[in-house]
Structure prediction request, 147 residues.
Amino acid sequence: MWAAGCLASCCASCACGACQSVVSGISRRSARIAYCGLFALSLIVAWILREVAAPLMEKIPWINHFYETPDREWFETDAVLRVSLGNFLFFSILSLLMVGVKNQKDPRDSLHHGGWMMKIICWCLMVIFMFFLPNEIISFYGKSISY
Prediction:
């Protein structure tokens, strides 16, 4: 048991070191590529959750509070919508923070090009938080983007 704990600690440390080295390597020029990478990551997460999260979401009481449980497709779509809403809110907040930035001397410009570890953490938290929202909000979002 002790060895498993040590192994898990070493793996976590290596993962943190790898993330930090990737994040610190993002320069001003590659920020656009990093944003595209973050968006691509969200697509991959949505795809994985579409395939995997349906049985898990059926057990979450604030998501599956129906008298009759919907079919699996409903849960798959709901998982993708929740990731999509988290993505939408994350990028909307970032874009609102950048309104009025005219040049690179603006202090908010460093927020746009830097702070990638914090951005990734905020993105993860935003996506996770969407799974705690009630179905009504997700349904409204789903209906609003389908028109």
Q: What stands out?
A: The mean pLDDT is 77.
